[in-house]
Amino acid sequence: MLKRCIVKKHFGLLLVICFLFQCFTIFSSPTKVEAASSAVSAIFGGGPFVTGGQPVMNQLKASGFNTVIIWSVHPHPNGDLYINDVLVCQNGNYVGDPAWATAWQSLKTGTTSVTRVEISVGAWGCSDFENIQALINANGTGSNTILYRNFLALKNATGADAVNFDDESLYNVNSTVQFGQMCAAMGMKVTLCPYTSSSFWSSVKSQLGSIVDRVYLQCYDGGAGNSPSSWKSIMGMNVIPGLWCLHNGSQGDSASSVKSKLTNWKSSSDGGFIWLYDDLMKLSSPNSTADYANAINSVFSSTPTPTPTPPISNNIALKKSATANQYVTNETPDKAVDGSIAGYGNGNSKWCSDNSDSAKWLKIDLGGSYNISRWVVKHAGIGGESTSYNTKDFKLQKSTDGINWTDVDSVTNNTANITDRTVATFSARYVRLYITAATQTTSNIARIYEFELY
Fold it and tell me: Is the pTM value of this prediction over 0.70?
């Protein structure tokens, strides 16, 4: 369960028309990075899809996933919409951070594998569909109702193509169908995400008809015993099985396991989905975002998914020698290059420096000279700590001897959980993260979960 998509004399003219159409398509459409298949490869995401900023969107765009599902939208009794615990829509207006909307809307633009964005409503232990039912019973679903106006505002803010239904408590066919018809009235498809109560989901699908174009079947946790072939028969359409990458802090389905299971389910499936990006970020290659996307896409395509550019998993700093001018016991420099972003209660894998010096540094010896064009820093927020601890001001430096340093790039006033920067290619054996403002406050404690070089 989810927790808290002629005759010869006319032949020359036809060629000209085709050529002109092709030119129009090239110059009017965003560049896509896609698998050779139209199968669905989807990923659910929570916190990082909201607070991770443009670097997270850029990773998704380069990953190979074609569907991004923002989880989870919670309608409150008064009609206000929250994403997780943050108010985003009220009185028919989007009231969330404008930067979030800009990031979401970038997912389907430029060079990207993403062709569809969905917003997911509901989760285990939430009363979202109960609140929806009460609002519909009181006011209906017309365009002047608060439920309609707030969802329309969220659609416009996210660029959503569909609303994903994850009811895990109410199971009321009538109000769910009315809600689905409301979503369709504002131009969105409806997708279903069952793990149990097959008769309810079958009835909703039957009554909504073509409004429902996908069924995401949970095949993990409470749905671990689900058979895609059985659910295909129940729903009258192929399903999209989902698997989880992390379970109670331990590896769930690896990328290779996802590929193996989907291969066995292929005859009943239209693709696959991964639960959950938030957990996936705690894993290291070969279980990166791109690896999971490729595991899905490769099952449904005779040709492999193109390698994203820049590469996601070729982190040359991984496991290399790391030193620092100071560190806290058990939060040593090597933990910033161990490939893990485990937070509290799960290893707390970060480099932490609490000395009184205003400047702090983390040095990586790559063991040889490398050409580098991208660097990534994962700050406190990625490990579940307060975002007020995210590093504010810092530099990337290079050296040939590990003693004399030259600035390559600098960041000021950062607030994001992840910094992902592309720079002009440079060559170096030694690279240093040089921090001049460790947090958003007066605290001078640096917390770096990962320092990556590509």
Answer: no
